[in-house]
Design brief:
Elements: E1 2-7, E2 13-17, H1 22-31, E3 38-42, H2 48-59, E4 63-67, E5 70-74, E6 82-83, H3 85-88, H4 98-105, E7 107-111, H5 124-132, E8 136-140, E9 143-147, E10 155-157, H6 163-173, E11 179-183, H7 189-200, E12 204-206, E13 212-216, E14 225-227, H8 232-244, E15 248-252, H9 260-268, E16 272-276, E17 279-283, E18 293-294, H10 306-315, E19 318-323, H11 333-339, E20 343-347, E21 350-355, E22 363-365, H12 369-381, E23 385-389, H13 392-395, H14 401-407, E24 411-416
Helix pairs in contact: 1-2, 1-7, 4-6, 5-6, 6-7, 8-10, 8-12, 10-12
Bound molecules: uridine-diphosphate-2(N-acetylglucosaminyl) butyric acid.
């Protein structure tokens, strides 16, 4: 089993560039299922989750060709409608193939994703929306069996804001007969990026980025070429790496507009963030201040930054209250941070952090993707050496993390055993 060893206490300095966004790349690669012919995707990050979705597409009979960060996909050869348990269990986002397979083939069989470390994560709203569009859905032997000789537009209200739910239904609706309206839709930049890609393919989607998305179905879509948007969570994580090490970092290739809530909170914590033509300059020279944070759907503070922000608050003298409103079990990093000296008390969906206590290196275990990022941040700030095990979690969502941090002056390396 691989481990990352970090020698903490070094101030990070220099320039780092952000990769393409995992959560934009996954649905956009899947959207290639909706057309025949080669679509071309640039700036695709080389991540474990991206490799999984490429494997799933290949399993479905789709041609996938990768050269560096460019991925070409041709779904003209699509022959299967089944996403097997082995792939879905390693990545829940595999469920994104449900909508496009139904739209393209009139049927789909997708393993039902189970719960995961951060919560139960049901997909009832994906299924309910597809049923409203005329799909017959049954759940048997751990699989979703969906059939719809032809999908019809529907007026769908999503009880909870769901990112992949919005994306799945959008991809089903683009080839449906008539108009689909998604109400209380997710507004995340990754949803907008998918809608833009679909419109380039010939879809008619308006309102993406607002709570009401309207999709007028078309008969066919054509292949396209798309550059994946920068990863806002990776950029935010580097902002906090500057904060926790009292560093001075330039982050290039990012889209500051996607990070407004994070930038706001980081500034409140005493970190300087300056927007420059090619990116963000992040400097931390003063004592950190404690601030409260509540996770919310976009444009609120992202749940995918909560664990990393908690580390910043562990170092800020004073009390801060962190509320997690998206996932019911997203404080699993707390017990590992406590092993490094953090003073955090959790009650329900609230964590109270008594910051300003010194953190010390310790052996710790990564439990999910963003939790692993928080452990790396804590290790960078801690005195001494931290050994992080189960680092395969980090490879799901951070491209070349050790190289990028080493380039900023961090001392870290990967070992086996
Ligand atoms: N929910 C339901 N029913 C549904 C769908 C969602 O109750 O049918 C609930 C979930 O249980 C959760 C809330 O709605 O409490 C929001 O979940 P959402 O569906 O938005 O999450 P997701 O689409 O499965 C995506 C990202 C996550 C990110 C969340 C929230 C992708 C591939 N994944 O997940 O990313 O945390 O949105 O922003 O886009 C990560 O990158 O580390 C990650 C977990």
């Amino acid at each position: 089993m691989e481990k990352i060893i970090v020698e903490g206490g070094r101030r990070l300095q220099g320039t780092v560039s952000v990769s393409g966004a995992k959560n934009a790349a996954l649905p956009i690669l899947v959207s290639a299922l909706l057309a025949e012919g080669w679509s071309v995707y640039h700036n695709v990050p080389d991540l474990r989750d991206v490799r999984t979705i490429k494997r799933l597409l290949t399993d479905l009979g789709v041609q996938v060709n990768t050269q560096g960060s460019t991925v070409k996909v041709n779904a003209g050869t699509l022959k299967s409608h089944e996403a097997p348990y082995d792939l879905v269990k390693t990545m829940r986002a595999s469920v994104l193939v449900l909508g496009p397979l139904l739209a393209r083939l009139g049927r789909a069989r997708v393993s039902l994703p189970g719960g995961c470390a951060i919560g139960a994560r049901p997909i009832n709203l994906h299924l309910k929306g597809l049923e409203q569009m005329g799909a017959h859905i049954s759940l048997e032997h751990g699989y979703i069996d969906a059939e719809a000789p032809s999908l019809k537009g529907a007026d769908i209200y999503l009880d909870t804001v769901t990112v992949t739910g919005t994306e799945n239904l959008m991809m089903a609706a683009v080839l449906a007969q008539g108009v689909t309206i998604l109400r209380n839709a997710a507004r995340e930049p990754e949803v907008v990026a998918l809608a833009t890609a679909l419109n380039q393919m010939g879809a008619h989607i308006t309102g993406a980025g607002t709570p009401v998305v309207t999709i007028t179905g078309v008969d066919t879509l054509k292949p396209t070429s798309v550059t994946i948007i920068p990863d806002r969570i990776e950029a935010g994580t580097f902002m906090l790496a500057a904060g926790v090490t009292h560093g001075h970092i330039k982050i290039i290739g990012t889209e500051p507009g996607h990070l407004a809530a994070v930038i706001h909170k980081v500034r409140q914590a005493g970190i300087t963030v300056e927007q420059e033509p090619d990116g963000l300059r992040v400097v931390c020279e003063q004592t950190l201040s404690s601030v409260d944070v509540k996770t919310l759907p976009y444009p609120g503070f992202p749940t995918d930054m909560q664990a990393q922000f908690m580390v910043l608050m562990c170092l800020a003298p004073g009390l801060s209250v962190i509320s997690e409103t998206i996932f019911e079990n997203r404080f699993i990093h707390v017990s590992e941070l406590q092993r490094m000296g953090a003073d955090i008390k959790v009650s329900g969906n609230t964590a109270v952090v008594q910051g300003g206590k010194p953190m010390t290196g310790a052996p710790v275990m990564a439990t999910d993707l963003r939790a692993s990022a928080s452990l790396i941040l804590a290790a960078l700030a801690a005195e001494g050496t931290t050994e992080i095990s189960r680092v395969y979690h980090i490879d799901r969502g951070y491209e070349s993390i050790e190289q990028k941090l080493a380039q900023l002056g961090a001392r870290l390396w990967r070992t086996r055993g």
